[in-house]
Fold this sequence. Notes:
Blueprint: H1 10-23, E1 32-38, H2 44-55, E2 58-61, H3 68-82, H4 101-113, E3 119-123, H5 132-144, E4 148-154, H6 157-164, H7 166-171, E5 175-178, H8 183-193, H9 200-210, H10 214-229, H11 238-249
Parallel strand pairs: 1-4, 1-5, 2-3, 3-4
Amino acid sequence: MKEQVFVKTANVDNATKAIMKLLARPINEMVGLGMIYGDPGLGKSRFAKQMCYRKGYLYIRLEASETAKSFSQKLWRGLKYQLNLTSEPTNEMGNAPGGSTNSLVNLCIRILMDAPHSVIMIDEFDNALPNRELRETIRDIVDQTFATVILIGMSGVRDKLERTNPHFFDRSNFFCEFNSLSVEDVTEICKKVCEFELSPKLIETAHKASAGQFRKLIKTLMLFEDKIRNKRAVTLTAKDMKEIENAGDKGSK
């Protein structure tokens, strides 16, 4: 199976267009905030990582234990590397400078003010919702800089943000939902990532087995390719289906 292939599914196309439109905004009049959300396994994180790799954006994943300070340290390290900020202060270990959370946030804001075209994709944004200080820190980045910030979360994150912090919610200039993959999406993915050409019937079988989830689809296609490579009948056994289901249970994006 071919790796690092950027397949233009309907989800990818819609999200890319939304980001490009946000980047073309009048930055003095509109904040650069958008949100991508959807059910698990639809490829949101994969899309974010590939966009960051291809476009030079900054990718940050929020952990369950994330704090405002640890997020600010991640942001500082990412900006320092991305912008090649050799003159920025570090501690004796070469890590983010010490001091209060507020001082570190202000340092990141100052850096971003000098880099107005920066794009930051914040994955697992659901983990910020219970932590008011972390939420407000991200909001400060949005409000006080010209940077573009794309939040990525689960299907309920949009409604949760609206309930938790309506002022933050109202700042978003796009909401893009990832939906289940269509047969057309699966056909395009098969063309781009598979080493072997699959028949329309096998593509339809892969779509059905994956239930429209990207992660399950990749596992299904890997099983198909293994059978083709070893000259076996390309069918899905009960064991195969269990492996596909287990693939869908791993991770959340």
